[in-house]
Design brief:
By secondary structure, this protein is an alpha/beta fold. It folds into four domains: about 190 residues, 3-Layer(aba) Sandwich (Rossmann fold); about 170 residues, Glycogen Phosphorylase B (Rossmann fold, 3-Layer(aba) Sandwich); about 180 residues, Spore Coat Polysaccharide Biosynthesis Protein SpsA, Chain A (Alpha-Beta Complex); about 90 residues, no CATH class. About 40% of the residues lie in helices and about 20% in strands. The chain contains 25 helices and 23 strands. β4, α4 and β5 form a beta-alpha-beta unit.
Amino acid sequence: MSKIAIITPCLLPVPAIKGGAVERLITGIIDDNEKYNKFDIDLYCISDKNTNEFAFNKTHIINVYNDGVDKYIDKFTDSLYRRIPNVSSKRLLDKQIIKCFSARLQQLDGIYDAIVVQNVMSTALEIVEFCQGKYEIPIYFHMHNCVDVYRSPYYVKKLVQNGVQFIAVSEYIKKEILECDRNAVVHVLYNGVSLKNVQKKDVGEDAARKFLYSGRIIPGKGVKELVLAFGNFLDKLNLEEKREYRLDIIGFSDSLTLYERQVMNIAQKYSENICCLKKISADAILEKYYDYDVIVMPTKGMEPFGLVALETISRGIPLITTNSGALPEIVGAGAEIVDKSNNFVDNLEKSIWRLSHDNNLKKDIAEKGFARAREIDDFNLDKYYSNFISIINKENDTGVISIIVPVYNVEKYLDRCVDSIEKQIYRNLEVILVDDGSTDSSGDICDKYAKLDPRIKVIHQENQGLSAARNSGLEIAKGELVFFLDSDDYIEPETIESMAQKMVKDHADIVACGIKLTGDKNEIFTSSECGMWSGHEAVIQMMRTNNVCSVAWNKLYKRNLFNSIRFPAGMLHEDEATTYKLLYKAKLVSYTPETFYCYFQRSNGIMGEKISERSRHFIKAIQERIAFFDEQDEKDLVQHSRITLLDGIKYAYRNEKDVKRKKELLKMYQSNIGFGNAPEVMGVRKASALLLWKYLRY
């Protein structure tokens, strides 16, 4: 059974004894989990003495305390963040959450299978920073609101870079996230309403007379505009007609805000027709809906989902709403939609007039809305838990995995390589041995294994080089996942199973593992810190660190990444010319430091080719990389690639014996850097060092 952490916003308690839309959804998850028993849940939520009476078998509540000075500092800074444009909010409470999180991890036998942070991005970033390099745990951010000070574009980019996946409450929110960073991985999990025992309203034969607005009385909800529109509508009626119409506005607070007073003052002119009422409980308002002919939801601000709209149409009650945010996505043709961008008050008045004078329109909207709420299966709250599971707890069946082994004159090492494949714990394999015109007994060894194991296929071809051999394997590979293994290397028995499980768990497109050097040297080559990144960030990791690495062979790939990508035939440093394209195409790249791949370096192998020849191919590969990212308008990746090019030229220059070639390399270096174009993406110090070498070789 999976063990997950759900970190609430820690603003209201869970279970949702004090309300809150997010808190009610989380409560639904833990209640359903008691019935269906899919997770062990650690629930991090704000401490409240009234939640102590709740007991769960599958949820362990971890109380986060927010007492003392920090609480008041957060309240003060929050008021500042709301007033300052283009900032990203922070809070001291997040440090307390991390303290609880750290203490809990010390108690656990193992680690979480997933972490879900609800709606506060500063908390998610703290969790990312705490786990970074230490814990191989996929992190999800469940985004219930639009991009704002608490969910800023800067925060979105930081989370995407670090491989955090997003759960959006609508396609509209998904679009907002992708506008902040196109590399984001976003799942959509619609909020829902319960359709159990929901009665369909009898809209009757008369046109609409009683209208209702229920919700917060704030500018973004368009309440003032509604009162103005309804007033204009009333002004066009005679005295007798006016008496038939009523608008109730439910949601005023006990201590009126300035905006609430403004709304009341406008409504006072129509006191016989417009009634301003205090807010009531969510359950009570659902019953009250049936007392009205039309519900009005005149939202001006961006609406992330539109729960009130869905609750309304699910009961067959006519709805007037706007084209704000996700509302058109939710209601479809099941509502009268008002354009809020131009002449909003006039448009709202016209919609009120239409529904109050056209009974057929009223009935048509009610019928379409009622059907809409049922035809979209994911709007049903009963599906919410299973939909949540399908995102967090993906099925683990990865099917056939293809292992491609290019073979050329490796008779001394081939048995060890293929035997390591035979010993894999994961058995559903397709093994493709590509004999690239070997002149020793390697081809015969391949055929021997194919006779013994039906999973092994052999391709014999004329010698065309490593790239062509890999490409031949790709052409016939049947697996949805692909792994490359060089024929003089070998892998540990758990390699494929562990990497495939990690790919599923992390929703990754590529999983890289640690590399262990064998032969003359026996040491770990790669980083000891785990990681997960967007494809874009993984390209940077490839160029700047020793975790992902540019080699093709320590990685498990989704085969569809190769749909338009192949290794360049006849080229040394073929990995430098290919891997970055695969990483860039991937949405998520995951790295485990487990040293599953055992790399054996031979002095007479391809890697042993003379530096002069290899450097030519390397430089060409990096120049092509620069052109590729320039075409994609990826300015930071162009700069990183230029740094790789300059460092590569320096290395070749220092190791080159031929004087003429050294001059060519120096000229190439000098033409690629100047005072106006020194790459600054790694900081001033690196840029200065690269620029200095143009004039002073050291």
